[in-house]
Amino acid sequence: MTATIRETTPSARTTTGPPPMSVARHEERAAAERRARGLGWFSIGLGLAQIAAPRTLARMIGIADDDATRNTMFALGLREIGSGVGILRNPGSARWLWARAAGDAMDLALLAGSLRDDEANRGRLAAATVAVAGVAYLDVLTGEQLSRSNGSGEATIERGRDVTRAVTIDRPRDEVYRFWRDFTNLPRFMEHLESVEMMDDRRSHWTAKGPAGSSVAWDAELTGDRPGELIAWRSLEGSDVANTGTVRFLDAPGGRGTEVRVSLTYDPPAGKIGTVIARLFGEEPGLQVSKDLRRFKQVMEVGEVIWSDASVHGGPHPAQPPAKPM
Fold this sequence. Notes:
The protein has about 325 residues and is an alpha+beta fold. The chain has helices spanning about 25-50, 55-60, 65-90, 95-115, 120-150, 175-180, 270-280, 285-300, 310, and strands at about 5-10, 10-15, 160, 160-170, 195-200, 205-210, 215-225, 230-235, 240-250, 260-265. It contains nine helices and ten strands. Helix 1 (about 25-50) runs antiparallel to helix 3 (about 65-90), helix 3 (about 65-90) packs antiparallel against helix 4 (about 95-115) and helix 4 packs antiparallel against helix 5.
C-alpha cells in the first residue's frame, strides 16, 4: 500500500502509513527477494527445458512419452517462463510467487494422476513429486514473506497506479533530505522533469515531458514536511496529472547511509489507456521513478549523473568522447 499523509493545517499534522522498516524485517525481505530471483531463474530454466526437450524431461520424470505429454510439457514450459520473467521484473512482489505456487499445485495434481498410468515409472514419479513439493514450499515461504512485508507497507509494490520504489544512498540523512527539499534540484536527476518553479514556501509549479513528445504540467502543495524524515505532497485541482506521494528518509541498516523511499499515487491522462500508451513509449511512471532514484544516488554520491556511452551517442560511433559536453 502507498503511504498517505494528510494535513489540514501546517501546525496540525496527521500521519498515516508504515513505520520505518526494522533491521530484522529489512534483512528478511532482502533474503526473500534474493530467493525470489533464484526461483525466477529456476522457472525460466525449467520452462526452456520443457519446451526444448519435452520427451527427454518426461522420461526423466517417469511419465509416458507421447504426443499428449509433449503438448502438456510445452504449455507448462510457457507458464514457467512467464512466471520467471514476472518474478525477475519485480522480485519484491509476491504476485508471481503465488502464481508459481498455483502452478506447483497443478504439477502435483498431474504427477498424482500419472501414478495411475501402467506405463509410468513410479519410482521416478515419486522422486519428481518430492522435488516439486520442495520447490512449492520455497514458493509459498517466499510469497508469504513478501506478502507480509507488502501488507505492512514495507515493500516495493506496484498495484495499478500506485508505485513505491527505494534506493540506498551513502550520504547522511539530513544532507539527502536538504537536497531533495530544494525542489529546483529535482530536474538534475529526474529525466522527464523540465522545471520546478516555487510559487511560495508550500506551493510549486511542475513541468514534465510526457509520452511521444508531449508536455504535462501541474501545481503541487506540500502536505507534510519533517526535516530529515519526510516530504509529502499532492497536486492541486486542475493539474494535467493528478498525483500524491511521499518521500521518506530512513537510516539504512548497517550504517550504510540513507534509504530513500518514494511512494507515488498517480492518475495518468486518459486513465488506464494513458498508462498503456505511456508503457509503449517506455515512460511508465514506475520505470521513471526507478531510473530517477538511480540518478539521484549518483548525484548525491558522485556529484553528477554518470552517462553511459550508449546514452551519449544515438548509434554506431568512434570510440571517443562527444564533441560537446553532456
